[in-house]
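Structural prep section.
Before we set up the soaks we want a predicted structure of the protein with dinuclear copper ion in place, mainly to decide which crystallisation condition to try first. Input record follows.
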Amino acid sequence: MKVLARVGLTSCAGFLTGCSGVQSALDPHGPAGEELARLIWSFTALCTVIWLMVMGVLAVALVRRRRQAADPLETDVQSEHAASRAVLMAVVATGLVLVCLTVLSFFANRTLAGIGADAELTIEVTGYQWWWAVRYENSEPSRIVTTANEIHIPSGEPVRLVLKSQDVIHSFWVPALHGKLDLVPGVVNTLTLQADRNGTYRGQCAEYCGAQHAHMGVLVIAQPRVEFDAWYEAQLQNAAEPSSELARQGRDLFLNRPCVMCHKVQGTVAASNAGPELTHVASRKTLAAGTLSMSRGNLAAWIADPQSIKPGTRMPTMNLTGDELNAIVAYVETLK
Ligand code: CUA
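Run finished without errors. Recording the tokens verbatim:
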């Protein structure tokens, strides 16, 4: 199991730095993930036993056939009856196995449905082509946090996810924590997320949703309650006032370019929610929904030419000069 988990880690770490978790349903880190892993292993064990039995019977049949040298056209009533009984027993056994698998699956579903009925925190996750909008509900509007592509949760606590879609059908899947659930336009689905250990768990859109379906990653970061609360408070703050001249130039460019048509930076006039929220974008681990790790170089590459990194993305190429790009990157880097 651990070997498989490491394979997941390798493919994940290929383009993610700081990815301490894995993206493997066989390395569960929460109650729903554990229940599903149990189901996977019981199905696998049962099917393995059946396969071995079928192969055993086949081997016996082949060996016995070779020993008999009788006329193949000659029929023997007794052995015909024995064969009929064997077929009947096999049919009954198949039926029993199917009932057994159904019962296992039913109990697993019942356990999954019972997890986290008392969740305190509700997070709305909306699928867009090709990123995830994340919004933490709160009865006080001033305490609602919006972010993108990265979901922080307190570890050991159930969290209710409300799944919606803005355009086409997507599917939210963080294999180490729970099973897949679709985000369907016009439909609201709910899912309980719970991570029992601190860590970063990678997820992936699991329903083909267009050209960049493969570049629609999501990170779930489970952290101790105290750290989660600190993160939450930081997210509520307006964007920091840039301290350098270059970053100030970058902010002015940002606010006077089409960037404001799609993005929100709390505390400025940029207030659109057509694209990912950017108020604290530089504190996130990845860019472009898990496509690139967060770094100055990747930020510059992404802003300079998003279409070559994620062809078809809604983010247009803005034909910035080198100096403009440098200033905008300096500004975005201050959005911690
Ligand atoms: Cu969204 Cu695939």
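Observations: Residues 127, 130, 170, 205, 207-209, 213, 216 surround dinuclear copper ion (CB under 6 Å).
Flagged for discussion at group meeting.
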